[in-house]
Amino acid sequence: MANIRDLAKEAGVSVATVSRVLNGYPYVSEEKRKAVWEAVEKLNYTKNIQAVHLAKGKTRIVGVMLPYIHHPYFSAVIEGISKEALGCGYQLLLFQTNYEVKRELEALERLRMKQMDGLIVCSHEADWEVFAAYREDGPIVLCERAVGHDFFTVYIDHYQAFAQALRYLLDKGHRRIGYCIGRTTGPNSQARAAAYRDVLGSVGVIPQPQWIFDGCLFLEDGKRVIERWMDMKERPSALLVTSDQVAAGIVLHAQRVGVHIPEELAVIGFDNDPLAEMLGMTTVALPHLALGEKAFRLLHQWLETGNVPRTQEELPARLIVRMTG
Amino acid sequence: MANIRDLAKEAGVSVATVSRVLNGYPYVSEEKRKAVWEAVEKLNYTKNIQAVHLAKGKTRIVGVMLPYIHHPYFSAVIEGISKEALGCGYQLLLFQTNYEVKRELEALERLRMKQMDGLIVCSHEADWEVFAAYREDGPIVLCERAVGHDFFTVYIDHYQAFAQALRYLLDKGHRRIGYCIGRTTGPNSQARAAAYRDVLGSVGVIPQPQWIFDGCLFLEDGKRVIERWMDMKERPSALLVTSDQVAAGIVLHAQRVGVHIPEELAVIGFDNDPLAEMLGMTTVALPHLALGEKAFRLLHQWLETGNVPRTQEELPARLIVRMTG
DNA sequence: TTGTATGCGTTATCAC
DNA sequence: GTGATAACGCATACAA
What we know:
3 domains; Catabolite control protein B (chains A, B); Rossmann fold; 434 Repressor (Amino-terminal Domain); 12 strands; homodimer; DNA-binding; alpha/beta
């Protein structure tokens, strides 16, 4: 492949002039400009972006760390990020971690290696300290609340979201309230656990450990929940389900096996997935797309201006009452 | 940041030796090796990956071109790609195109610029010729059938999938058969249109143009389909729906408005989404994950061995009969 | 086993 | 306006 030295030779100018023309700088005579572009045509030249990255020390690439892609929550967040990035001329490098700390470290190392200009962490497993250790290696924006750490974060207020739904259920008279969650670790899950403790504690309800259903990520997990629920002696009368997919699985399987929703079991989902509207599910609407968009915008501002005030933006959730709870 | 020259100075060796140690080459004395690693520690050194890329002329990055991410079809394909890539130590650079030719060209240009070692095209809008023009610029694997072009492709045989479902409906006595599709352009859509023409033509059925519902991508589009269906004078008695999401929307909304499935309207979805199982939907199972995995494996083999025989792998689809059709 | 020198393809800084 | 030339940071062929 031809490089700018070849171009310079062909056009009878210096490499500096070639570079100026290629990057649209002023102060180049029209005739040389023309000669350069002709050489570009003739030699079928294309810029080598790796060399540009090395010379400039920047890539206009941002990394996106997330556990998995094929999941409505994360694919919505990444869509939001992607949409914004597209508009700003940035590219996205994907780091799928499966919540393995080892993989998270790999992504952070890539930031150190200057493979990307910044990193958006959608969700993670490793301790905050791990991320803090890479602070000097590039801008990092987190999509989870980081209490007691001065990271840049944009996050959905899951405590408030959970508390809101719990109070609604308490008001309706429910006392045996359980919940379904994707995993028990991680800031989002812990915020929800805290809300669960706090709100239920405030009315003197002591929740049973078996009312917490772990590992609920996909539609089919809802089936499992109903099955377990039916086997229980002391069944919860209501369930908070942190994913509308799982909630839909619960509602649909309940229908199949003759469990009446909401009479026997009230169900409140999260996300406000189109599925929730379609099934008439009560749900807490979460702004995933906006989360991704705002996360990118924050990182972008940071990258372009070099320094922005520390930001911790909280995105609100909104209970949408329909028929299942 | 420290570079290998600083390391060399610190360790009292040459940059070549530093490079050897860093990359684990043999024939370095234990004492120098130790000195280098100590220097690495002391100077808090990390390799600059951009420089590595430039020097090696490779990046171990593959691009993934796709219209949108937040869609069950594409997020499944990309999950398959990602899974394989992770295992091989490759990274994924995302190119979301929204089916805009301009964006597709941008991705191809990036391949020319050597930003990535190869490109996987999940779906595209531009003409084959556009892609053919970039053949020399790097390995490209397509996830759509390319008749009459010698691209490397791995694809789902949508003609066969469609034909299979159509014949099943014909056998059940249906004659007024329509279908719902995401878009009418693109190889996959055209393959389905061809199957529709051929199979229906083979039994002398002349399909009505209004039996084709375009722009069906998401759950909520199913609602629209039912509404339009109800407004029709001559309604189709069966619908092929190229996405289980849309099919679920149809089934659920039909239930709401009192349309009986499959008596009044038979519905066959595609994908075998968990939702299809849950709703008891007849569907054609499509191997999305496998598609992504195989596409990456093919590209990977191409990248590692330099030259592989031209491949056009066809992935089969399988009709799963349940209750809606 | 080790070091020197050169290449990778740009961008950026000067001097003219 | 233009052209040398030095970065950018690493890999590697060739010598020794």
